[in-house]
């Protein structure tokens, strides 16, 4: 299998969540980590900073096969409980199922409405475009959910023989083994106010800073936070440090935002360059 997204996983995309290997009501990924949730059946590939991809990112074929089924027409709307009845049986949103040899199937979920570029019966090859990453179905952030099945049984491509060790997978379905990134920072932006997490999650634009802005604020967006991680934010102005603050995470969070800054306390801000820095520290690293 090849990655199902036409992007660089170090700079443009990342893996937000993996398949759940815990049969109880708890959840843990193939590394015994928290990058999953109870009953999660696949792998979620997401966009690091949607602002950098104004035209969206292509979802591409991971393995050659035949288009078995598809659905389009589901709006790109962040899921809320009010949509539960409307999406009953359509949690995948706009999606594609590809049939492969010897009983294998792959399914791609949450594609952008109107972007699907294949039809049932098409023969597709690795790298062919299926559509674009979207927000359709039961999801709260733009991503493509990919699940793998063999004769109807769900398979984790990172551990197709099952989780045998917490340290590393002994086998993989990926053509080139993909890195396990246990969390990190995704984007860092300036604001003139304290933003909501949706602004960073969806790449929404806001007004630029001026020397009369009511405040200078920075907001860091990240994933895979674990209890005890420390996030430090710092703003350096033309002559001195404007703001610096550290916070210790009090719980695990799949996605998180931490922000802070300083209100305007003089007539105008000093002209010049302002630099933002965010650091996420875990176990001293």
Please tell me about this protein's structure:
The protein folds into two domains: 13-155, Glucose Permease (Domain IIA) (Distorted Sandwich), CATH 2.70.70; 184-281, Immunoglobulin-like. Helices cover 2% and strands 36% of the residues. The protein is built from one helix and 16 strands. The protein is mainly β and 285 residues long. The radius of gyration is 21 Å and the shape is globular. Strand 13 and strand 14 form a beta hairpin.
Distance between the termini: 32 Å
What do we call the CATH topology of the largest domain?
Glucose Permease (Domain IIA)
What's the CATH architecture name of the largest domain? Distorted Sandwich
Kindly report the oligomeric state of this protein: single chain
Helix share bin = under 10%
- Poorly predicted segments: none
Give me the count of strands: 16
- Rg to the nearest angstrom? 21 Å
Q: What average pLDDT do the residues reach?
A: 95
Principal-axis shape: globular
List the helices and strands and how they pair.
Blueprint: E1 13-17, E2 43-47, E3 58-60, E4 65-71, E5 94-99, E6 104-111, E7 123-124, E8 129-132, E9 143-150, E10 153-155, E11 184-191, H1 197-201, E12 215-225, E13 230-236, E14 241-248, E15 253-263, E16 275-281
Antiparallel strand pairs: 1-2, 2-9, 3-8, 4-5, 4-7, 5-6, 6-9, 9-10, 11-12, 12-15, 13-14, 13-16
In short:
The chain is mostly beta strands and 285 residues long.
Summary tags:
globular; 285 residues; Immunoglobulin-like; 2 domains; mainly beta; Glucose Permease (Domain IIA); 1 helix; single chain; three-stranded antiparallel β-sheet; 2% helix; eight-stranded antiparallel β-sheet
């Amino acid at each position: 299998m090849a990655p199902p997204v036409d992007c660089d996983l170090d700079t443009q995309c990342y893996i937000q969540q993996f398949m759940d290997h815990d049969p109880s009501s708890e959840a843990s990924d193939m590394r015994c980590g928290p990058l999953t949730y109870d009953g999660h059946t696949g792998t979620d590939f997401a966009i690091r900073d949607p602002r950098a991809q104004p035209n969206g990112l292509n979802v591409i074929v991971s393995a050659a096969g035949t288009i078995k089924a598809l659905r389009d027409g589901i709006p790109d709307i962040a899921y809320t409980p009010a949509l539960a009845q409307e999406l009953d049986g359509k949690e995948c949103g706009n999606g594609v199922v590809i049939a492969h040899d010897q009983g294998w199937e792959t399914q791609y979920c949450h594609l952008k409405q109107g972007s699907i570029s294949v039809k049932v019966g098409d023969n597709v090859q690795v790298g062919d475009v299926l559509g674009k990453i979207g927000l359709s179905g039961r999801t709260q952030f733009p991503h493509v959910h990919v699940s793998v099945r063999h004769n109807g049984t769900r398979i984790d491509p990172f551990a197709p023989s099952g989780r045998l060790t917490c340290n590393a997978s002994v086998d993989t379905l990926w053509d080139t083994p993909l890195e396990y990134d246990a969390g990190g920072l995704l984007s860092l932006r300036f604001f003139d106010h304290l933003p909501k997490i949706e602004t960073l999650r969806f790449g929404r634009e806001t007004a630029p800073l001026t020397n009369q802005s009511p405040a200078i604020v920075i907001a860091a967006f990240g994933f895979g936070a674990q209890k005890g991680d420390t996030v430090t934010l710092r703003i350096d102005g033309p002559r001195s440090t404007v703001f610096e603050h550290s916070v210790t995470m009090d719980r695990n969070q799949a996605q998180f935002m931490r922000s802070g800054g300083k209100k305007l306390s003089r007539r105008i801000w000093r002209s010049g360059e302002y630099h933002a820095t965010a650091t996420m520290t875990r176990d001293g690293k």
